[in-house]
Structures are given as structure tokens and as C-alpha cells.
Amino acid sequence: MASNTKTGNSSALLKKYKDNPTKLSPEQKDQLILEYAPLIRFIAQKIAVRLPSNIELDDLISSGVIGLMDAIEKYDPTRDNKFKTYAEFRIRGSILDELRAQDWVPRSIRDKSKLLDRTIMELETTLRRTPTDEEISAKLNLTIEQFYELLNEVRPVSVLSIDEHATFSSVDKKSILNLLEGCKFNNPYNELNLKTVKDIVAKAIEDLPERQRLVLSL
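Given the sequence above, the corresponding C-alpha cells read:
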């Protein structure tokens, strides 16, 4: 029953927002952010699995909060797209922008990644097909073991080339739908997990610079 009430509240807010986005109060905007906390975590975790372990998930979530706030402010209800879809793009884009700004990938790793890309492209042009691992490693004068080590080393670089406007797969969309609309907290662990997410999001809002926090009160 509580879950249905939450979904109803969120739907009512979004309907009000669609009818007249300027009428949302700061408290209602804050409620929207908390309602979409699972989406922020979902996207942050999806990106985090491709990053080095020193990148904190909480930092990605904080960037995602800013993206959701941006989505709330800039969403155009007259266009033919759902708010949730638009929010996905803004959250993902905000996280990737922050990663780019941090420039957390060492230059040496970037150079290796570029060399690998060039080598693969050259082999594809010459062979007119996708080269095998053995062919790529031979071209780079590496053993197959060294080649696999290189792949593991440059793997995090690929996260910054994620298309910001890429759509989620049908499986991902189903997962998001379950998180946002179909969650029935049948055990204390799940309820605690969502509470943790919402606490992180709430703290992220408090920690924002004053100028960005003011977005909620516009």
C-alpha cells in the first residue's frame, strides 16, 4: 500500500509538472529528486562497474543528483518524450561530465588506448575484417598475456566514450521500471537499501554549492 502511495504521489507531481512546471514548490522538487533516487543509483552503478576502484560511487551519485535537478529545470513537457527518459540522459551526462572534468585517467593510459584503437583500425582496413586477439598482439609486438593486460589497463577509458544519448536496453528499462514503479519492499534489506540511497541523495543536496542549491528554490 505504501509503495502504491509513493508511485501515486510521483505520478501526481509529474502530471502537475507537465501541466505547469513553474508551479512546483521547492519541497515538491525535492520530493521528485528523492522519488528518482533509485534511477540515479542505477545509472551510477552501471557506470561505476567500468571505473577504477578509487572512484567513489557516492561521488557519481552526487553528480547524478545535479543532472536530475537540471532535468527538472529544463524538461519541456510540450515535447514528445517522457520525463523519466529525459532524466536518464541528464543524469548520465552529468556523471560523465564530472568524470571528464576530473581527468582521472592518466595520460599514459590514454596514449595506450589511442595506440590500441589505431592498431585495430589499421588491421581492420588491411584484413577487411575484425582482427583476432593474436593478430592485434602481434602487431603491437606483445605476447597474448601482455595484450590482455593492456586491455584491462585501458578498459576504464572506454567509459568516457559512452554515448550520452544512448538508450537503455529493454532489460535495463525493465529494471528501471521495477526500481521506480514496481518496488514492493518485501524484506528489511531492500527497504534499508533505498533509505541509504535517499540519505545519500539528501546529503548530496546539502553539500551542493549555494548557487546550485538555489535551483531547488526557483
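The mean pLDDT is 70. Try to locate this feature in the C-alpha cell string yourself.
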